[in-house]
Specification:
Keywords: Hydrolase. With 192 residues, this protein is α/β, with parallel strands linked by helices. It has two domains: 136 residues, 3-Layer(aba) Sandwich (Rossmann fold), CATH 3.40.50.1000; 47 residues, no CATH class. Helix content is 43%, strand content 14%. The protein has eight helices and six strands. The chain has a six-stranded parallel beta sheet, sandwiched between helices. Helix 3 runs parallel beside helix 5.
Length: 192
Amino acid sequence: MLRLGIDIDGTVTAQDTFVPYLNESFQCAITLDDMTEYDLTKLLKISNEEFWGWMDQHEPLIYKQAKPAEGAKVILDQMKHHHKLIYITARRQHHTDVTYTWFQENHVHYDDIELVGGHHKLEAVQKHKIDVFFEDHHGNATMIAKEADIPVILFNSPYNQMPIDDRIIRVNNWQEASQWIKQYEQRLQTAY
């Protein structure tokens, strides 16, 4: 049984979740393809303070209404029988209730959820003894792969196209992620 560490936003939820809210608030017409950096302030031509003011106002509704990524629920339902599913998210602590409610309303299994309140997930990864991590943020994936020395499955997106090292596995969807996990388990069993 592997202990799987799983990011939520852009990994379990659809990567374009924020797009309609951004377009409405900032009177623009961006798409996921326009989001070539994780930091959206340049794309929106706003300051960091303006962005976080907007996030403070809109995050609860966005998190509440987020759609699961295509295939995520089916694959996670299969994985829950063989692995521990531990969600480690950059969401801030005051979003705990909306986060748990989303998992319950969408019938997505979890063994644990930790809101770390920022992009430094390494401590939580180590605390939970994570074997493989699922992420969409390039910086997080790189740090976790290097510092925790574990494989990181990186969900392909326009905003994470920087080079990756050999501990990072780029996938396009949850089916590819599941296939990689099955092959990884087989390699581990063969090694013992």
